């Protein structure tokens, strides 16, 4: 087992050691201000020069509070304000607004790092990708798990055969959303802003995408069931959801997600020869458990929290922007998740398998 | 949290403190000899007087080795040999033989404790139940999790509202069968003896039944996918399987099972207010993890191994036999699992949801 563990080396992806990508941040919720902003500030290759929000006043206030140069409104952003002072935009708004901000970024010739899920629907996500491709600007979808050191380590082990043949995957992502954000009218419960629903879009995407990334296999068929019960969830169909996904090579994946349940994030990959489990997986300090035969090892890195993951992610993104190298996860990669999420909702509505 | 933990009391079911149920054991594989036999010998209310096997010679040899009075063949058992020396039979043979031995037990007016799954098919399981009902003999299906102290404790907590509303369940049961029993022709891989298949029948039944028992809710709809890859699995369809089950009250359950994978047994129940997890759940020393809010407690009992579970189970069974009280899990309870397993196989074959 120690042979497996010892081999890990952090940031194998890093190629740039100098240069700075200057960011405009769009969508100034708690995630952007409390996680993304400090992550960039503590990164090697990034700095935040511009905050963009609904009003100039709010943006300026937050810019001042956080020691950022410019605070501008969305209208000003669309008009190109301060655009000589940022090289890239981070889009952390509600899903259904991503497209318009990315389209403007494309017009302004800025690199884009866009939060997942990419947009509210497959159709809009496709337009988002096409806008970036037409303008030839880099587009990365902000799957922060990809650059989490625990996930990187696991991916390296899986690529070397740690699991044997992958057999099954389990992912759960549940949280008590109304306790975390006690507002029944929040955007995550509004399908006009969130898209197909809430639990799969906002939570399920973690299990699906991280499994795809780690196993390098995409879903080919999907079965799902979902239901809503609490009155705050009356406009969305997936207060709780469950799905069976068949990935390439007949890997069986099951996943449950709920925005109205005890908090738990868990990803487990089982193979013919070993098992890799993350618990917590997607929030909090990611803990990695590696099992082969009768031996189980728990790997704790120093700080696998969200800010550290985001710092890694922004440095990876900046590294690729500065060197012009291709980046993962690109828009096409993100589009596959959108198609899977759409299929999950279609399957739950129809009761049928949806093939992808 | 301590309020929840402190309330547990072992063996609340116990009503008899004296009396002895004398057993004949049928099917002398390692489970019966190494686990069931010592469990009965260390139980309060049971003793083994008779071993039944394919030949008189084998039965007599094993009886002598294990200090048991009688060793008889299946033919002799059917003819009523030694039947004045046992009150109950434990049926631990391959699934497809259960019916004939239970029918004889019914004729001999003996109580029956029968291993799960009950039989190879729903149709045969139904005949098994009807034979016992017609003869008015007690029939218990040997779900050893029901009397595991960890499961008893969890059930008590769930009944008191520990989970809040149950939201989702995850169960996995996987093991490397060919490493454990290196014989490609073993009965668990022969559908004539095992029934619908191998992974769901032999392993999946644990997750399904324990979830049913803990939540007191049965599956109402099932989706499943399965596949076989290794040549030893060519006669069965479920070397690996995955299923989504909707339980009553829209509880979403997902489960994966494989007879050709790294060993892992895990059951997790998530509610609106708490979570209960068993890992390992079905083999080894069951560990119980209880979470509510930000607090997680791990409960280790002394000896939650299979022999201890079986001892509890045999004492529970004997308690009910001696007092004539109704017993859980009875044949009708076991029949529901058979119908669920059949539905899982039908769904995997057809690709459709199967409603129950």
* Overall pLDDT level of chain A: 95
Order of helices and strands of chain A: HEHEHEHEHEHEHEHHHEEEEEEEHHE
Uncertain regions of chain A: pLDDT < 50 for 5+ in a row? Answer: none
Name the CATH superfamily assignment of the largest domain in chain A. Dihydrodipicolinate Reductase, domain 2
Give the class of chain A from helix and strand content and strand pairing: alpha/beta
Shape designation of chain A: globular
Please report the distance between the alpha carbons of the first and last residues of chain A.
37 Å
Q: Class of the largest domain in chain A, according to the CATH hierarchy?
A: Alpha Beta
Biggest interface, residues from each chain: A-B, 46 and 46 residues
Count of helices of chain A?
A: 12
Q: How many domains make up the 3D coordinates of chain A?
A: 2
What oligomeric assembly is this protein in? Answer: homodimer
Largest sheet of chain A: 9 strands, mixed
Secondary structure: number of strands of chain A? 15
Helix content of chain A: 25-40%
Based on the structure given, which CATH architecture of the largest domain in chain A is correct? 2-Layer Sandwich
CATH topology of the largest domain in chain A: Dihydrodipicolinate Reductase, domain 2
- Report the sheet-strand fraction of chain A: 25-35%
């Amino acid at each position: 087992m120690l042979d497996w563990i010892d081999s890990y080396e952090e940031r194998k992806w890093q190629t740039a050691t100098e240069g700075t990508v200057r960011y405009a941040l769009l969508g100034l919720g708690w995630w952007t201000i409390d996680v993304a902003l400090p992550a960039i500030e503590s990164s090697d290759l990034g700095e935040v020069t511009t905050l963009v929000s609904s009003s100039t006043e709010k943006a300026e206030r937050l810019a001042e509070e956080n020691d950022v140069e410019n605070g501008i409104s969305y209208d000003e952003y669309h008009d190109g304000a301060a655009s000589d002072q940022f090289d890239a935009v981070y889009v952390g708004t509600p899903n259904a607004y991503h497209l318009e901000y990315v389209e403007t970024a494309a017009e302004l010739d800025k690199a884009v790092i866009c939060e997942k899920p990419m947009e509210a629907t497959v159709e809009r996500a496709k337009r988002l990708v096409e806008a970036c491709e037409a303008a030839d600007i880099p587009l990365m979808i902000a799957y922060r798990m990809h650059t989490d050191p625990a996930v990187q380590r696991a991916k390296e082990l899986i690529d070397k055969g740690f699991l044997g043949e992958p057999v099954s995957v389990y992912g759960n992502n549940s949280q008590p959303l109304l306790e975390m954000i006690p507002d029944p009218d929040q955007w995550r419960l509004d399908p006009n802003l969130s898209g197909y629903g809430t639990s799969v879009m906002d939570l399920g995407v973690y299990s699906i995408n991280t499994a795809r990334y780690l196993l390098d296999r995409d879903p080919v068929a999907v079965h799902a069931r979902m239901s809503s019960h609490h009155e705050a969830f009356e406009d969305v169909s997936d207060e709780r959801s469950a799905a069976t996904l068949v990935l390439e090579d007949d890997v069986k994946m099951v996943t449950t997600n709920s925005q109205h349940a005890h908090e738990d994030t868990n990803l487990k990959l089982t193979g013919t020869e070993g098992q890799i489990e993350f618990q917590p997986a997607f929030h909090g300090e990611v803990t990695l458990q590696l099992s082969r035969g009768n031996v189980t090892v728990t790997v704790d890195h120093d700080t696998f929290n969200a800010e550290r993951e985001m710092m890694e992610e922004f440095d990876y993104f900046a590294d690729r922007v500065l060197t012009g190298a291709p980046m993962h996860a690109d828009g096409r990669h993100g589009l596959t998740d959108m198609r899977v999420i759409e299929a999950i909702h279609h399957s739950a509505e129809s009761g049928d398998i949806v093939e992808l």
